[in-house]
């Protein structure tokens, strides 16, 4: 600590002695109009600012011989040497190049900026938010930066503890398409099943992409299946990777959670909890880029290591004495990531590009407690009972390469992208009770993998002399997907027996035996039974699609966009979708925009082929409890139809308003109707009066199925207001962002054979969890103030209340809560900066409920704000 303070003092003194000066200037476009929001920075340092609404800027610059970089979305970046000047003006030209710019999601017009888009697009500056909040994973950044985005940390939810399900506008995790640099990202191989949002859905593992490799994230909040294909029902998240060169960025973050429960809860010993710390997190990353040639070529590389310990939130024992889970909280993990991004000019009109990466995550999560006297425990192995650990080994890699060139008068992009996600389970500190004292305590439980290959050819062309501008785009795409399940070791799934644990005999008044109740030891590894050989599968499918996308500038003030897409899948067949959108410029201060579209989502391979078998003993007979594949004989015998695509209709209407230069509003309403949503049914037992005989005949004790069962309607509103004003010699940026959402369940459609079984097919509990994935509202109010070397960030997060149905079919109400984030940063010199702060600094928790009735087995289910309490952090950054 002493050496550290000496180092900081030396840096501080050095900084004061530095010959800094105030650089001023103004940035305009070619017509002389001021440009607001332009990034202006001293190259190779952290010195810089953005232009105000009059186009003016000023900041402390370290050298009169520095090079100043001007960058703005939709405009050509510039690097201008100061050459001794203290005032530097710049004129920026709109980008006309198809090769040097990454397209803005939602439009294939390479000249279109995000402010001209006929649909709402959010731009999220990831590195700035990560520095202000200490958040190092994408889900956490977006959870607070984009109100329509929701990611819930799980506990006791098997694989979902290790890959968080995330949603946009309350839709399913698999109804949002993720792109990297405009190219489709593969999904995770995990299908969410137990105790989780988005159950029955797959999704994309956003946290496999290191946030330190990202320049910005673009969120298209509108249906876009006609433009981008399957999964874009709710919208599109496009992750744009860094392109910086000749700059080394190093960041180190450390933080921890408070365990004080807001000073109101008691531990399992019945004593008031003192504030201690858990969930310790340590993160380090490095980013560096090198220049290739003189035509904008580069090679950028990012390395990232992130480690997080578990959090533990025991039950409030004075209210809930039954300790169903002695260990409840977030999982621990260690994450290693590498990301590359590059572009190599080949000649004046062509370039080769490549990006991709690798991510490895090892996780460890608590399962439910096994009591000492339970038939699931062996006293000689665990005298005090045990808490199984579900461990994960997740590997995720991707590579995308392509050629951008000119073919005739068309800008062409030929691309090949491949990605693969593999999820392996281990179960530790557990047993297979049917092996009794011979049981091992660690099991390899198998897992699954999903791969995706995309080949595409895309063409765009602008016709400046048609109307007031016409842009055409068209393309063809081919996709191949592969999915497999691999079995665990035999002792992770097998029932060795039946093995009797106890026999309970009751007698009548005459002393005769009235009944004999036999309890058998269960097989498989406790916490998570392994996949069996009968679960194994290796499946593939193909699809080919084509699209036409046009944008017409009817007048200078009116834009009309239209898109049509045709796709054919090798398993479920053909689909066609459309989109119409418009933007009308009422005045220089007001734009009105709206869209109407149809969409689809193909059933994922995991939804079609996922299989899980848990072997149990019932009345002395070994039977299977299964999640049956959609193509299985069992599904056919009980009348479950083949899965088909989800269909959607999406409409939006909104406006942008800038009444004064310093103030802007965007307001967008939306309506989304989804038909035939795919869900996981409830559990049908072999005592069911309709399909029970079929289950019993096939030696199945209970079964669940994936099926197109639900229609939903969602109505919502997104509101964003931003205000910039100078205070003293600094600038204050104020942002209000809100999402209001209402989802209604139109109907539950059972099969003909199961009419009247709606409460099992998709019952009240399942309905409440589906509706809770679309919270009524989330509102963020943030203040970002910078003055000289200091900056301060303050944010208020208002989470709405939600209702969930518990195991007693009663409503658990989670009331609305407000959390507060605060951080302060300081730039010591052009090389070093530091930020300290906290998220949820007042240690606010959700409403607590009886852990014996919640889905999670703890006092809280997975709700928006999480259940980890306050998090405090320090972050140290270096730029060379």
Automatic annotation (TrEMBL):
Ranges for domain TonB-dependent receptor plug: 114-236
Keywords: Cell outer membrane, Membrane, Receptor, Signal, TonB box, Transmembrane, Transmembrane beta strand, Transport
Localization, UniProt: Cell outer membrane
Keyword Transport tagged: yes
Residue stretches in coiled coil: none
Gene3D superfamilies: Carboxypeptidase-like, regulatory domain, TonB-dependent receptor, beta-barrel domain, TonB-dependent receptor, plug domain
Membrane topology value: Multi-pass membrane protein
GO cellular component: cell outer membrane
Domain of life from the UniProt record: Bacteria
Signal peptide limits: 1-19
Domain TonB-dependent receptor-like beta-barrel: 355-841
Family from the record: Belongs to the TonB-dependent receptor family.
Protein name: Outer membrane receptor protein
């Amino acid at each position: 600590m002493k050496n550290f303070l000496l180092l900081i003092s030396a840096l501080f003194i050095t900084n004061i002695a530095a010959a800094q000066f105030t650089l001023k200037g103004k940035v305009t476009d070619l017509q002389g109009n001021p440009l607001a929001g332009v990034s202006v920075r001293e190259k190779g340092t952290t010195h810089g600012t953005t232009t105000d609404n009059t186009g003016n800027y000023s900041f402390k610059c370290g050298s009169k011989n520095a090079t100043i970089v001007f960058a703005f979305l939709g405009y050509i970046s510039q690097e201008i040497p100061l050459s001794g000047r203290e005032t530097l003006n710049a004129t920026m030209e709109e980008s006309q190049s198809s090769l040097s710019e990454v397209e803005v999601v939602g439009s294939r017009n390479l000249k279109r900026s995000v402010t001209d888009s006929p649909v709402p697009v959010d731009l999220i500056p990831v590195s700035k938010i990560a520095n202000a909040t200490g958040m190092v994973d994408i889900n956490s950044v977006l959870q607070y930066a984009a109100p329509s985005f929701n990611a819930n940390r799980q506990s006791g939810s098997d694989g979902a503890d290790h890959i968080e399900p995330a949603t946009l506008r309350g839709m399913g995790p698999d109804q949002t398409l993720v792109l990297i640099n405009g190219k489709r990202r593969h999904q995770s191989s995990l299908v969410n099943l137990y105790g989780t949002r988005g159950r029955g859905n797959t999704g994309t593992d956003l946290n496999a992409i290191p946030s330190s490799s990202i320049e910005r994230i673009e969120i298209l909040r509108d249906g876009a299946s006609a433009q981008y294909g399957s999964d874009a029902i709710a919208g599109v998240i496009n992750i744009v990777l860094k392109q910086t060169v000749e700059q080394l960025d190093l960041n180190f973050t450390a933080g921890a959670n408070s365990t004080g429960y807001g000073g109101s809860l008691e531990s399992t010993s019945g004593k008031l909890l003192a504030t201690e710390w858990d969930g310790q997190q340590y993160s380090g990353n490095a980013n560096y880029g090198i220049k290739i040639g003189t035509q904008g070529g580069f090679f950028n590389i990012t390395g990232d290591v992130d480690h997080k310990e578990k959090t533990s939130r025991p039950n409030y024992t004075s209210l809930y004495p039954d300790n169903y889970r002695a260990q409840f909280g977030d999982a621990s993990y260690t994450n290693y990531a590498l990301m590359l991004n590059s572009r190599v000019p080949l000649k004046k009109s062509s370039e080769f590009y490549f990006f991709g990466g690798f991510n490895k995550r090892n996780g460890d999560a608590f399962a439910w407690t096994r009591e000492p006297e339970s038939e699931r425990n062996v006293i000689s192995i665990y005298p005090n009972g045990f808490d199984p650990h579900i461990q994960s080994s997740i590997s995720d890699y991707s590579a995308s390469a392509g050629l951008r060139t000119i073919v005739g008068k068309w800008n062409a992009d030929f691309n090949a992208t491949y990605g693969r996600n593999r999820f392996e389970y281990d179960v530790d500190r557990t047993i297979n009770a049917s092996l009794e004292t011979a049981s091992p305590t660690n099991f390899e439980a198998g897992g699954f993998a999903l791969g995706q290959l995309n080949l595409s050819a895309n063409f765009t062309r602008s016709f400046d002399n048609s109307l007031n501008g016409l842009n055409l785009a068209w393309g063809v795409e081919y996709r191949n997907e592969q999915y497999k399940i691999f079995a665990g070791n035999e002792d992770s799934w097998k029932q060795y027996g039946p093995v009797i644990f106890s026999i309970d005999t009751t007698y009548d008044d005459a002393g005769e035996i009235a009944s004999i109740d036999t309890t058998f030891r269960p097989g498989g590894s406790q916490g998570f039974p392994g996949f069996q050989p009968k679960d194994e599968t290796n499946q593939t499918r193909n699809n080919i699609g084509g699209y036409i996308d046009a944008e017409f500038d009817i007048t200078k003030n009116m834009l009309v966009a239209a898109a049509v897409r045709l796709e054919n899948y090798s398993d479920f067949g053909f689909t066609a979708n459309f989109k119409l959108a418009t933007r009308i410029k009422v005045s220089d201060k007001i734009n009105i925009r709206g869209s109407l579209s149809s969409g689809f989502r193909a059933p994922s391979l995991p939804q079609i082929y996922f299989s899980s078998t848990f072997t149990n003993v019932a009345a002395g007979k070994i039977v299977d409890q299964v999640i049956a594949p959609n193509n299985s004989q069992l599904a056919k015998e009980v009348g479950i139809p083949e899965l088909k695509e989800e269909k959607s209709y999406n409409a939006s209407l909104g406006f942008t308003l800038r009444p004064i230069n310093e103030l802007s509003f965007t307001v967008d309403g939306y309506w989304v109707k989804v038909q035939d949503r795919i869900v996981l049914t409830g559990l049908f037992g072999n005592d069911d009066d309709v399909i029970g005989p079929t289950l019993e005949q096939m030696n199945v004790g209970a079964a669940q199925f994936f099926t197109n069962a639900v229609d939903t309607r969602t109505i919502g509103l997104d509101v964003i207001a931003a205000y910039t004003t100078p205070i003293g010699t600094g600038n204050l940026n104020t942002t209000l962002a809100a999402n209001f959402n209402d989802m209604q369940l139109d109907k539950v459609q059972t099969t003909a054979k199961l009419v009247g079984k709606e409460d099992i097919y998709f019952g009240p509990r399942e309905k409440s969890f589906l509706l809770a994935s679309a919270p009524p509202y989330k509102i963020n109010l943030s203040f970002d103030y910078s003055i000289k070397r200091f900056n301060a960030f303050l944010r208020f997060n208002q989470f709405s209340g939600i209702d969930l149905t518990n195991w007693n079919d009663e409503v658990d109400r989670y009331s609305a809560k407000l959390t507060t984030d605060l951080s302060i940063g300081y730039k010591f010199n052009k090389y070093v900066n530091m930020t300290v702060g906290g998220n949820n600094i007042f240690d606010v928790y959700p409403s607590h409920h009886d852990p014996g009735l919640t889905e999670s087995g703890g006092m809280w289910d997975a709700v928006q704000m999480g259940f980890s309490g306050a998090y405090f952090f320090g972050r140290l950054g270096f730029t060379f």
